[in-house]
Sequence to fold (224 residues):
Amino acid sequence: DSGVTQTPKHLITATGQRVTLRCSPRSGDLSVYWYQQSLDQGLQFLIQYYNGEERAKGNILERFSAQQFPDLHSELNLSSLELGDSALYFCASSVQPGLAEKDTQYFGPGTRLTVL
Amino acid sequence: GESVGLHLPTLSVQEGDNSIINCAYSNSASDYFIWYKQESGKGPQFIIDIRSNMDKRQGQRVTVLLNKTVKHLSLQIAATQPGDSAVYFCAEGNQFYFGTGTSLTVIP
Fold:
């Protein structure tokens, strides 16, 4: 158990809908990262937050957005969902920002999103 | 663009043998790499990392080798066990690039 929690574990929805995925980082970790893992593909970095502020952006679509709240939990919002958005979404956390400090990321169990 | 990639998508080894998983990266400025293990239905789990000022780093039954000249790193698992069966990712730690993974199957 990494100490990172994600809810829900599974989510099934229809095209065009909007969903929110939630992540609680490990106690004491200030940085949260979101990744997408599609079938037969590696992890694609979406976005990073550090202490409530956006820190780095990866291959995140404009239909997707995220935020980190004062209690450090984070939410990933996916809107206008398409079939291709079906994937595992992982959250990870680390103590430091993770860019210059070379910090280890601890991953949650993921949320499996299925868009029908 | 920048990338990291594993050489083989699948690898099968006999229990007790040593496993070697290879990874190449493209950005010569990359100076931090991590290996992750992902078991079925779980999130990636940190195994070991290495910084560019090192050529080799050892953990418990695992060794990572870094060859900056050819931009290559490898993960060696000694005395592979059934519990080592998983997908292994190498990742570039600065820009969060992950390879597609090598699926390791340990044959009892």
